[in-house]
Design goal:
With about 475 residues, the chain is of the alpha+beta class. Helix content is about 30%, strand content about 20%. It has two domains: about 5-230, ATPase, nucleotide binding domain (Nucleotidyltransferase, domain 5, 2-Layer Sandwich), CATH 3.30.420; about 235-474, 2-Layer Sandwich (Nucleotidyltransferase, domain 5), CATH 3.30.420.40. It has 16 helices and 23 strands. Strand 7 (about 80-85) and strand 8 (about 85-90) form a beta hairpin. Helix 10 packs antiparallel against helix 13 (about 365-385). The chain has helices at about 50-65, 100-110, 115, 130-140, 150-160, 170, 185-190, 215-220, 235-240, 300-310, 320-325, 330-335, 365-385, 405-415, 425-435, 455-470; strands at about 5-10, 15-20, 25-35, 35-40, 45, 70-75, 80-85, 85-90, 150, 180, 185, 205-210, 225-230, 230, 250-255, 260-265, 285-290, 295-300, 340, 360, 395-400, 420, 445-450. The protein is globular and about 65 Å long. The protein starts with a strand and ends in a 6-residue tail after the last helix. The strands form six sheets. Strands 1, 2, 3, 6, 12, 13 and 14 form a seven-stranded mixed beta sheet that branches. The protein has a seven-stranded mixed beta sheet with strand order 17-18-16-15-21-22-23, with helices on both faces.
């Protein structure tokens, strides 16, 4: 018999994680593996076979720790799989593969207007529609006569339960395939015949059914362990962060920080958002929350820029105690020096996609350099937040929530709002658990951030002035 513990399967772009939780939200165990892409006959694909092989062993190990009652699949966006009956006909494409340039112009002419979809035209395969167009143009034979498309979290739900489904948070993630205000497929998806190929839409919280006999046999999980439909990863974190009592009834924006800094806003009922304010050329868009509501969003590759400026995870300038305790002590020196970082070191994305990143003033070293990077992240985040009208309450979660330079500067720049942090590393998993039990309370209270004890207005003004005079490439 199944128990009441919950397994969260989180398939990210870089890593896949499997975590085991009690019904009350206490973590019992976890497993993780790095991801990579593989070569399919027609495209660079996500390594679903490799993930599945690892998943089998990890599920077997975790099933011995506690009685599992539920599995919640979570996965990144811009990916879908093509099924043919009970077989995988086409593995999900890797969104970092560039389509041939001539296809760009053909595809762009077919897309619905941004004002209707809230989906900007992104590079590579970050628009799911562009992936589908590329595949069917270069390999028209890919479509089985009874082929069914499933979005990526739901691929794993199908693999575990045998039930094919589609869910709105993945369809609404810059796919070009969804009109969020009308809550329907885009004209592009309908005209190309893709809409009718997608599996039935199901709620993220819906139980699709028990795991298949095959998976029960392979893993030792109870045969009545239930598989939920699942959700897009940023939306899982968004759903979890909004559960805090301090945010009830407020206009809330959640910034998830990692390789990408993704800000998603839930406007208060009395302050509806005008989608005409969004600027697709500056990486603003609409996501869709688990209830199908449009969520004004903005993004930039903050984590990638940090890697460029101070090195990878093994850099001493990125050690948690250094970022938390040492670098902030150099903030005053940075402000006095006037040295600052102008965007951007991840060109093509973010609020300043055409600009060329550079130092204004002497290039700093050591603690001052890491402090300047934190100030830079806050200045870019502040610009992104302004583009989506963020106000009242701002919550930062993820890898950079304990970056004291970034958080303090953001609180200073957003003095008319309450800036909170959640230092739990499991915000995404908590949001996934809430799909099973919406009454689950957060594991810890939010912490309200304090502004820096320095005047930062002049520094911020000089930064904005540097943008006006900065170099750009067409």
């Amino acid at each position: 018999m199944a128990g009441d513990c919950v397994l969260v399967l989180d398939v990210g772009k870089s890593n896949t994680k499997l975590t085991l939780w009690t019904a009350a939200g206490r973590r019992l165990a976890g497993r993780v593996r790095p991801n990579s892409s593989v070569r399919a006959p027609t495209h660079a694909a996500l390594d679903v076979e490799g993930i599945e092989s690892w998943l089998e062993g990890s599920l077997a190990e975790l099933s011995e720790i506690a009685d599992v009652g539920f599995i919640v699949p979570v996965a990144h966006g811009a990916a879908a799989a093509l099924l043919d009956g009970d077989q995988l006909a086409l593995p999900p494409a890797c969104y970092e593969e560039f389509p041939p340039p001539p296809l760009y112009a053909e595809y762009d002419a077919l897309r619905d207007p941004f004002v209707d979809t809230g989906s900007p035209r992104f590079p590579e395969g970050l628009n799911l529609g562009a992936q589908l167009y590329r595949l069917e143009t270069l390999a028209p034979q890919i479509w089985p006569s009874a082929g069914v498309l499933v979005t990526y979290p739901q691929y794993w739900a199908w693999r575990l339960s045998g039930i094919a489904s589609t869910e709105v948070t993945s369809l609404g993630c810059h796919s070009d395939l969804w009109r969020p205000f009308e809550r329907r497929f885009s004209n592009l998806a309908v005209k190309r015949g893709w809409a009718e190929r997608f599996a039935p839409l199901r709620d993220a919280r819906e139980i699709l059914g028990p795991i298949t006999r095959e998976w029960a046999h392979r893993t030792g999980l109870p045969s009545d362990c239930q598989v939920l439909c699942g959700v897009h990863d940023s939306n899982a974190a968004f759903h979890g962060a909004r559960a805090h009592s301090e945010l009830a009834g407020r206009d809330v924006t959640v910034i998830s920080t990692g390789t990408w800094f993704v800000a998603m806003r839930a406007p208060a009922p009395e302050s509806p958002f005008d989608p005409g304010r969004l600027c697709p050329e500056r990486d603003t868009l609409l996501n869709v929350d688990i209830d199908g509501n449009p969520a004004p969003s903005a993004r930039f590759m903050g984590g990638r820029e940090v890697e460029f400026l101070v090195g990878g995870d093994d850099s001493p300038l990125r050690a948690p105690d250094f970022v938390r305790d040492v670098a902030p002590k150099a903030i005053c020196d940075v402000l006095v020096s006037g040295s600052m970082i102008a965007p951007t070191f991840a060109r093509g994305v973010g609020p300043f996609p055409k600009r060329e990143g550079r130092w204004e003033g002497p290039e700093l070293k050591g603690a001052a350099r890491r402090a300047a990077v934190g100030l830079y992240l806050a200045l870019v985040a502040d610009a992104s937040l302004s583009l989506i009208g963020a106000c009242d309450a701002i919550v930062v979660e993820g890898r950079f929530a304990e970056d004291a330079s970034f958080i303090g500067m953001l609180a200073s720049l957003r003095s008319d709002a309450d800036v909170y942090i959640t230092t739990s590393n499991d915000a995404l998993a908590f949001g996934a658990q809430r799909l099973v039990n919406d009454a689950l309370t957060p594991p810890e209270a939010l912490k309200k951030a304090s502004p820096l004890p320095y005047e930062v207005g002049a520094y911020a003004s000089r930064w904005k002035h540097a943008l006006v005079g900065g170099r750009e490439r067409a």
